[in-house]
From TrEMBL:
Its EC number is 5.1.3.13. This is dTDP-4-dehydrorhamnose 3,5-epimerase. InterPro entries: RmlC-like, RmlC-like_jellyroll, RmlC_Cupin_sf. PANTHER family: DTDP-6-DEOXY-D-GLUCOSE-3,5 EPIMERASE (PTHR21047), THYMIDINE DIPHOSPHO-4-KETO-RHAMNOSE 3,5-EPIMERASE (PTHR21047:SF2). Keywords: Isomerase. Homodimer. Belongs to the dTDP-4-dehydrorhamnose 3,5-epimerase family.
Length: 183
């Protein structure tokens, strides 16, 4: 597996070695030793999640607050998404900046989204199945988020269609400025 740090510190792209043969393919979706040796980050994932969505669904941008913050290792099992994460660490050089990558079931790349980031994705194909490991449990009271089309973060959802499908909760998310502007 190849592990590359993005321009956002602690945020990594993981490209697995895929073994193709007459039967299909095989790949390791997580290898704790290799992950920790390559990144220097100790992981202790405690929850695995999976969601299915059709083209045009946008989930995000989500995070959990305080002691419930989650690091996530995200991937696509079937279909494709544009995956986005935003650095919300106030002491970071890249505070407010985002990284995006297409994740699909061809390259099987994964993104490691560290604690202190918001995360979301827009779905590019019907019946896309998205899966991720989290290093902290879901906590409804600690849920937070930023509206996907926030003017300050200004994510280019480049492959998205006009007819985005969002949950009501995601349509009601606040702006970056309302969360972080002390003025
Ligand atoms: C995230 C989550 C949701 N749920 C429940 C709550 C709710 O009734 C239902 C659907 O939840 P949501 O609408 O929040 O699902 P979704 O919009 O898919 O939320 C996810 O979005 C992506 C972008 C992330 O990064 C994840 O961390 C998570 O926030 O599932 C759990 O039971 N456990 C969980 O870990």
């Amino acid at each position: 597996m190849i592990v590359e740090e993005t321009y956002l510190k602690d945020c990594y792209i993981i490209t697995p070695k895929v073994f193709n043969d007459d039967r299909g393919y095989f790949l390791e979706t997580f290898n704790k030793k290799q992950f920790e040796e390559s990144t220097g980050i100790k992981t202790s994932f405690v929850q695995d999640n999976q969601s299915k969505s059709n083209k045009g669904v946008l989930r995000g941008l989500h995070f959990q607050t305080g002691k419930h913050a989650q690091a996530k290792l995200v991937r696509v099992i079937k279909g494709s998404v544009l995956d986005v994460c935003v650095d919300l660490r106030k002491d970071s050089k890249t505070f407010g900046k985002y990284f995006s990558i297409v994740l699909d079931n061809i390259k099987h790349q994964q993104l490691f989204v560290p604690k202190g980031f918001a995360h979301g994705f827009v779905v590019l194909e019907d019946n896309t199945v998205f899966a991720y490991k989290c290093d902290n449990y879901y906590n409804k009271e600690a849920e937070g988020g930023i509206i996907y089309n926030d003017k300050t973060v200004n994510v280019d959802w480049k492959f998205s269609t006009d007819a985005l499908i969002l949950s009501q909760k995601d349509k009601d998310l606040p702006t970056f400025k309302s969360l972080f502007n002390d003025n």
